């Protein structure tokens, strides 16, 4: 049995080597390159493909995998929004993801960024770098006095809720699907509008779908509390960047922590050498603001997550090859 793993980073390699040692019945090939038209031929002869990348899995790549007889594609991450679903289906390619490599990693980072916003660490760091050790006017808000609205109560949303509650915040949530435990606690509001109207902090944890593209827009921002803090560690497509910038300019939005950005592909996880060379004016506009924390999609980036992404994806791919089944199959 042969599995080829694409896009293997240096921090993933030791985990892949260990998995390979523990699974001597599998021939493991790997490359640091992403899966695209220029690299797909390397998969010829493999039984399954393991990948992670933010760039699209295009129809032509999936058709090529199909033509090599490859039916199993295992992603090392959660999101499946960059797969051409029709092409995967017509080639009979089954796709698995890793739904829970570490929901806590993302939740912890989200709350870290919120605390940085509330305690104005960005501003104090900049002041201190200039020798200004004064307090005023940068007085903080306290999370224990606030209502946090969690949009989507999947594993990551729920992990974030546990932390917000630990801080003593009032936590409310919206989701089409209600988690039974949370339902008992009575945290759900019935509509997104109610969530917007009641939340001092909006914590977004939804996958990107056609329905929720730009759910944070001029209209929904107008429904939010004045000075709302918006946290998006989920998917850039949820937020209309122009509307966010307008909301920040007007003061309607008090601050934002963005670990995702709608045009991040090809920009995040790249070294441009200097701030000025970052090729996205709106992103730079956001990065320059003291009440905005932009981070390059690093909420997931922990040792535990990297290990689990490799192990769970390799296990899923092997299981598909051996049995045609996996508990991590996704419906496209
Ligand atoms: C995902 O798992 O879908 C993520 O967004 C994290 C990714 C950058 C590895």
What tags apply to this protein structure?
332 residues; 5-stranded parallel β-sheet; alpha/beta; binds 2-OXO-4-methylpentanoic acid
Give structural notes:
The chain has 332 residues and is an alpha/beta fold. It contains twelve helices and eleven strands. It has helices at residues 13-22, 59-67, 85-90, 103-118, 121-129, 155-166, 180-185, 192-198, 218-222, 241-250, 281-287, 303-323, and strands spanning 2-5, 27-30, 48-51, 72-75, 94-96, 147-151, 170-174, 201-204, 228-232, 253-258, 292-294. Strands 7-6-8-9-10-11 form a six-stranded parallel sheet, sandwiched between helices. β1 (2-5), α1 and β2 form a beta-alpha-beta unit. α4 (103-118) packs across α6. The longest helix has 21 residues, at 303-323. The mean pLDDT is 98. The structure holds 2-OXO-4-methylpentanoic acid. 2-OXO-4-methylpentanoic acid (COI) binds next to loops.
Overview in brief:
This protein has 332 residues and is an alpha/beta fold. Helix content is 36%, strand content 14%.
- Determine the N-to-C terminus distance: 26 Å
> How does the helix and strand content classify structurally?
alpha/beta
Mean pLDDT over all positions: 98
For this entry, what is the oligomeric state of its chains?
single chain
Using only C-alpha atoms, the radius of gyration works out to 21 Å
**How can the largest sheet be summarized?**
6 strands, parallel
Number of strands: 11
Helices and strands, in N-to-C order? EHEEHEHEHHEHEHHEHEHEHEH
Bound molecules: 2-OXO-4-methylpentanoic acid
The percentage of residues in β strands lies in 5-15%
Percent range for helical residues?
Answer: 25-40%
Count of DSSP-assigned helices: 12
Strand order of the largest sheet: 7-6-8-9-10-11
Shape field: globular
């Amino acid at each position: 049995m042969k599995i080829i793993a694409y896009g293997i980073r240096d921090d993933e390699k030791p985990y892949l080597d260990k998995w390979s040692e523990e699974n001597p019945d599998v021939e493991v090939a790997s490359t640091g390159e992403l899966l695209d038209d220029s690299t797909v031929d390397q998969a010829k002869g493999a039984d399954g493909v393991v990948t992670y990348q933010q760039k699209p899995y295009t129809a032509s790549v999936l058709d090529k995998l199909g033509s090599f007889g490859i039916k199993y594609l295992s992603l090392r991450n959660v999101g499946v929004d960059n797969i051409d679903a029709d092409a995967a289906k017509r080639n009979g390619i089954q796709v698995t993801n890793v739904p829970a490599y570490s929901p806590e990693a993302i939740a912890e980072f989200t709350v870290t960024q919120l605390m940085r916003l509330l305690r104005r660490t960005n501003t104090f760091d900049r002041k201190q770098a200039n020798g200004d050790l004064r307090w005023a006017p940068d007085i903080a808000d306290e999370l224990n006095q606030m209502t946090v609205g969690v949009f989507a109560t999947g594993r990551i949303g729920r992990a974030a809720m546990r932390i917000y509650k630990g801080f003593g915040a009032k936590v409310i949530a919206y989701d089409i699907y209600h988690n039974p435990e949370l339902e008992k606690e009575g945290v759900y509001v019935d509509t997104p509008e109610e969530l917007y109207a009641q939340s001092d902090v909006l914590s977004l944890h939804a996958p990107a779908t056609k329905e929720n593209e730009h759910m944070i827009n001029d209209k929904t921002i107008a429904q939010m509390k004045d000075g709302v803090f918006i946290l998006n560690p989920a998917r850039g497509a949820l937020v209309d960047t122009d509307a966010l910038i307008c909301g920040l300019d007007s003061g309607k939005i008090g601050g934002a922590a963005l670990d995702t950005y709608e045009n991040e592909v090809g920009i995040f996880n790249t070294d441009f050498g200097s701030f000025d060379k970052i090729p996205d004016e709106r992103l730079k506009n956001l990065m320059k603001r003291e009440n905005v924390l932009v981070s390059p999609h690093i909420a997931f980036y922990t040792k535990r997550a990297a290990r689990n992404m490799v192990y769970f994806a390799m296990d899923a791919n092997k299981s598909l090859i051996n049995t045609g089944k996996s508990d991590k199959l996704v419906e496209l």
